[in-house]
TrEMBL record:
Sequence ranges assigned to domain PRD in this UniProt record: 66-170, 171-281
Superkingdom as given in the UniProt entry: Bacteria
Record organism: Thermotalea metallivorans
PANTHER family: CRYPTIC BETA-GLUCOSIDE BGL OPERON ANTITERMINATOR
Repeat found in the keyword field: yes
SMART domains: CAT_RBD
Gene Ontology molecular functions: RNA binding
Protein name, entry field: Transcription antiterminator LicT
GO terms under biological process: regulation of DNA-templated transcription
Length: 281
């Protein structure tokens, strides 16, 4: 391995001969007294980053100049853990976005400054698995740096993971979270029920609403197989669920300029029937 660029004493880049892709190589003192073109002492390599998106690769290299090496390593550990736990792949931007976020969050926490996460309650219920990873992450940071992070920070980390898995901007993810929670509130108050969050029907409903919210934000229409003939059956047999679905339709069209199709109403009504039936039982 020959040095392509020296970013600092602990970080260099190389160009992979097989793929011609630039990799970021990290290790204590790996570039000390070294010059471009010289070989790397491979025993000093601690981390190898391959960010295929060239734009994100450049941003990541810029970030390396600004924050401690340890923070970058911690961020990479969290991302690797999240991939394993969530069985998910992430957009390359997470290496920049999460690392940059953690650097500021750690600094705030060390100064005793807290920023409230106003979507924490929603995140805990809508993105349960991502939130669990977020809690693991703040414990991991505490072990590595001795910095106590607030629970709100677990929610922020969870949102970054959701962003990266969907390829969305933070603003879109926050809007999607708000949409799902607002719809759950409409359902809860219409049927006067409290959700059993351990019930599989609730999980199925939330999963459906996540994709529903994603389509709303992306302005993409739902195009399943033909389901319109079911609409009359839904009206006849699941009248209250259909009426609640119409209330949700009205809320979405009023607030998000998104026209909901008959197919959406059918699927939403069926999910409502399942979850309400389980709650009544």
């Amino acid at each position: 391995m020959r040095i392509h660029k020296i970013l600092n004493n602990n970080v260099v880049t190389i160009v992979d001969e097989a793929t011609s892709m630039e990799k970021v190589i990290m290790g204590r003192g790996i570039a000390f007294k070294k010059k471009v073109g010289e070989t790397i002492d491979e025993s000093k390599i601690e981390k190898v980053f391959l960010i295929e998106n060239r734009k994100e690769n450049i941003k990541f290299q810029q970030l390396i100049h600004e924050i401690p090496l340890e923070y970058i390593t911690i961020s990479e550990e969290i991302i690797s853990y999240a991939k394993q736990q969530l069985k998910a792949s992430f957009d390359d931007h997470i290496y920049v976005a999460l690392t940059d976020h953690l650097a500021f969050a750690i600094k705030r926490a060390s100064l005793g400054l807290e920023i409230k996460n106003h979507l924490l309650w929603e995140i805990q219920r809508i993105y349960k698995e991502e939130y669990k990873v977020g809690l693991w992450a703040i414990d991991f940071i505490g072990e590595k740096l001795g910095v106590k992070m607030p629970e709100d920070e677990g929610g922020f980390i969870a949102l970054h993971l959701v962003n990266a898995s969907l390829g969305k901007e933070m603003g879109d993810t926050m809007n999607m979270t708000a949409i799902v929670q607002d719809i759950l509130n409409i359902i809860k108050y219409y049927f006067i029920i409290e959700f059993d969050e351990k019930d599989i029907s609730y999980d199925r409903l939330v999963t459906h609403l996540k994709f529903f919210a994603q389509r709303i934000i992306s302005k993409k229409k739902f195009t399943p197989s033909e389901t319109t003939p079911l609409l009359e059956l839904i009206k006849k047999n699941y009248g209250k669920q259909y009426d609640c679905a119409l209330k949700i339709k009205s809320y979405i069209e009023k607030n998000y300029d998104y026209e909901i199709s008959e197919e959406e109403i059918v699927y939403l009504s069926l999910h409502l029937y399942r979850v309400v039936s389980r709650q009544n039982e």
